[in-house]
Amino acid sequence: MGLAILWVVFFHSQIPTDLLPLSKINTAVSFVKGIGYGGVDIFMLVSGMGLYNSLMKNNPADFIKHRIKRIAPTWWLYLIICIVLGALFFEIHYTFSEALGFATFTGYWLDMKNQGNWYIYAIMFFYLISPVLYSLLKESKNRTKTLVILMLITLVISFVFFENKKLMAFSRLPIFIMGMYLSANCKELENDGKRWALSALALVVGTTALGIVYFRYHSLLTPYGLWWYPYILIAPSLSLFTCKAMDVLQKYIKPLTWALAWTGKASLEILLVSDYMFSRFKKADWVIISKGFTPFAVVIISILGGILFRIILDFFINKFEKKKVRN
Q1: Residue 100's Cα: distance from chain center in Å?
Q2: Taking the chain, what is the end-to-end CA distance rounded to the nearest angstrom?
Q3: Which of 230, 275, 220, 175 lies closest to 35, judged by CA?
């Protein structure tokens, strides 16, 4: 999660990709930056895995309650910050209906303005339907067959949203279901010797397909979901190999893994802070002091600001819960 959010931040940033002397390296860096939105697909995959485990321990009502408890305080405080800063510095004024749509996680679906990041709306919707997906996978006698059917159904549903901004959300539903499936079958897959070869093949095929479209048919990426669909192959395999690499690295570079763990813990807050920073600073000409320094500064402030946001929020939530227990 920590690496994924850093990739997303890199993607949205204005950090230049032509700083190195070799053009081929610059092209590779530009490609890595250009497909950094794939960090969101990793969020979806890992979220699906975590939610399956959570539903094994909680009934649907408690599960939804816990999910709202994790997202809502951050989201509502973020809404207040957006309203205050928008009114004071950016001449952005929220109507009552826009604020209500934001607060109730419905504004994105209703095509309202000033609704923040689409990811929050998508993941909250996925939370709501995950008990049904969990039940289908858990009770299935052939989970692989159920997975294929569910992914085909959700793919067809997403096709309805071609050339619609909601495709960003619905095209991620198959990878979310894949995450739930992997969690349901982790014991079987753990001892499957073929998984590494299949994962490597999926990573190569998915990345090659994405690269071909990215470099040759760039104009087709967004309207038809070609930005996102290759990650159905890429995200699971990339996550698997990354986890293996981190298992090795954490033995030698503990400060790095500690920092990434904190970054992953605050990934939601970093996403929101960076999203706000980038959206505002792109429109503020006075911020562009130099070609390189300012974009890097904005990225660092976004990451540290997101972590601080999480620490402060945790402090007040823990204080409130302790007071509630005493009462």
Answers
A1: 24
A2: 36
A3: 230
Dig out the tokens for 22 from the structure.
């070799």
For the chain, what is the radius of gyration of the CA atoms? 20
Give the HSE-up count for residue 88: Cα atoms under 13 Å, Cβ half-sphere. 6
Q: Do 90 and 73 form a contact (C-beta atoms < 8 A)?
A: no
The pLDDT assigned to 290 comes to: 47
* Crossing angle between the packed helical segments 60-85 and 267-281, to the nearest 10 degrees: 30
Is residue 48 within 8 Å of residue 231, measured between CB atoms?
no
Do residues 4 and 236 lie in contact, with contact meaning Cβ atoms separated by under 8 Å?
no
- For 270-300, how does the pLDDT look when each residue is reduced to its tens digit (9 = 90+)? 999 999 988 877 655 444 444 556 788 889 9
Total count of residues recorded for the chain: 327
**Residue 251 half-sphere exposure, CB side, CA atoms within 13 Å?**
4
Instruction: Tell whether the model's pLDDT for residue 150 goes beyond 90.
Output: yes
Classify the phi-psi angles of 198: left when phi > 0, otherwise alpha if psi is within -120 to 50, otherwise beta.
alpha
d(CA 118, CA 107): 10
Tally of CB atoms within 10 A around 314? 13
| Whole-angstrom distance, CA of residue 307 vs CA of residue 314 | 11
pLDDT band at 191 (very low <50, low <70, confident <90, very high): low
Q: How far apart are CA 45 and CA 53, in angstroms?
A: 13
Axis-axis angle for helices 118-139, 38-57 (nearest 10) = 50
Is the whole model's pTM more than 0.85, yes or no? yes
CB distance 266 to 309 below 8 Å: yes
